[in-house]
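Field: COMPLEX_INPUT
Field: COMPONENT_COUNT = two
Field: RESIDUE_TOTAL = 760
Field: MODE = joint
Values follow.
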Amino acid sequence: MPASPRLDALLRDLGPRIRRGSLPVEPPAPLPTGIPQIDRLAGGGFPRGRLSEIAGPLSSGRTSLALALLAQSTRAGELAAVVDGADAFDPASALACGAALERVLWVRAPRLREALRSAERLLEARGFALVLLDLAAADLRVAPATWPRLARAAAASGTGLVVLSAQRATGTAAELTLHMKRVETHFRGTPALLEGFEAEAALVRCRTAPAQRTASVHLRSDAAA
Amino acid sequence: MRTACLRVPDLPLAAELRAHPELAGLPLAVASGPGPRAEVVALSPEAARRGVRLRSSVVHARTVCAALRVRVASPALERAAREALLDAALGLSPRAALAPRASGAYAGEAAAFLDASGVTSLFDSERGFASALAARADSVGLPGDVAVAGSRSAALLAARWLRSGEASHPARGALEPGRVQVLPPGCEAAFLAPLPIEVLDPEDDLAESLTRFGVRNVRDLRALPRRALSLRLGQRVLQLIALAEGAETEAPLPAPDRGRLVEAVDLEFPVDRLEPLTFALQGLLSRLLARLEARHLACGDLFLRLDLAGGGRDARRIGLAAPTRDLRVLVRLVCRALEARAPDAPVEGVALEIEANPVRRDQLDLFRPPGPAPSALASTLAELEALCGSGRVGAPEVADDHRPDAFGMGRFAASAAERRAQPGEAERSSAGCAAERRAQPGGPGPELPLAVRALRPPVPAQVRLFRGRPESIRSAVANGRVVRLAGPWRATGGWWSREERFAYDHFDVQTSDGTVARIRLDRLRQTWHVDAVYD
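Field: COMPLEX_OUTPUT
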């Protein structure tokens, strides 16, 4: 029973903003890439239960970054899925990045439609820490409702959904969008060897808005390692 | 040996109601054929109450009851219902068998016997076991009566009497109400004695002869001298006497194999669209899954058979990555198979056969993050394989092959235990540690291994050479002048086989459009391709 009419009025004014006391629910830990600069840029890593995107043209380093994310997840003992809408996944590269391949489910979707449906089905199954949807070579003409639907499915499952694309595609449905760009290519030695290249990750969209906007990363070829 | 009998008194009617549960509670008649002059061979209590009689013609039955629903008797449905009855029995006992088909007044019944010895260690009493069996029969869509007795014949007669004359039995005070009946050990003879001779289902001429002899019930039959009776009426009467005494004369009940389960339906009219066909398939699958659930099994591979108009037949196998009992997944799988390759002609009949496999179990891992539930993962894998094609879903593997585009795909282990048991995990972990060392924050800087994107199949390219080295490229992925170049790296192999032989010269190139790609010269065919892009 309210102690006074003023308290009664205050409670009435506050209305639905008053909630019963409970411990604040901690957001799940993000999925790190293992690259400190990228993780700082992304606010700790790629968020679980959210749709994220890595965009960039060919030879920009986006696949290397995605495989680093895959490697970190699987090395932590979690399951990850690669929905390969471009049929471009290279197991040897993933292994070189340190991925535990036995914890990776590889789905070679023949077309964009199957890739999107496969990703949705994997999100519904729950239990995967990461679903990597590679649409980098696909013609991304998808229905506008597709990305919000996938984002909702990711939120319901707690799975981090990361879309790999040539151009930014997911729009406002994404919690985090990184755009990759190659800065310089290194061919060194005699005879010449592809040593690697310098890439830059630009934060295009992030709801948590970190201070830093770009991060540099060096991609090193196995031949030069 | 204590034996239970699960009996469905009117199988044609029960089979129709099992396939079409929406007809329950309606006046329903099962006709012997499709024409108007066909006979009514089974009818529901609602139809009987409205004056429809067995053996009347369909035309007459419709005259008596205008709201009568008529279904044509389907041998396929009855066969499936009979097997479902056995499945319900096998859900509670490993030893079970179907009773041979009866004749005469009990021609429509179906019964299954099962070993009920020692069930009191699992159930509180034999009555509890009988109730569980009745519930199991309900779950497969075949409500029936259950009796437990010291022999198969006594159990069958008790089950028959439950339905036909419980109220008039002289020992009705000792009988328990309901659909189950348990005859205590040693009480079979006393129970059977007052039953009329008709419950033994004698052949017509034998029944007439016995009636002339003044035999009215089982007690009268037992009192007659066997030798004299067999001399006059033949060996058949001895079998009847053995039945009347409730003696166990058959071999012990067998333990059937897990085997395959079949459900089939003949469609009323040819179907040429997927949607109504899906409706029929959903019914078949739900009935199959109820049978599997009754036996604690799961669905393995599916075999679909379509009877087409014009006498054709379309048979196909639908593989499952793992056993499942998820109806939604199975319906999707079958629909995808039909969408991928539509039948050549309208469909007149559908049969589904499934492999009954044990349900996969998983031991959860205390020290690793939880993955998907095994059953959900199995369903997901099956669905993904149906969606993307066979062999396109699995765990990636690095192929033990020098061919540059070689890769492997193994089975994705559903359980943590299986994953741990897979060979090569240690060396993969060491690769992971090496990558981790490269990515140490305290190292020379943030460094990632450079990944490649494979092009499958390799993209043809036109390459202009200058002094034997690529100068410019035209292809679908990389175009322009070659700005930087490394190579060639030669790869050869498969020399022992004309088909598998390969000899490539690889170059790492950066073109003026900014792409860093791996191109190759096929030295055997003198063709250029882009087979990967560094990304």
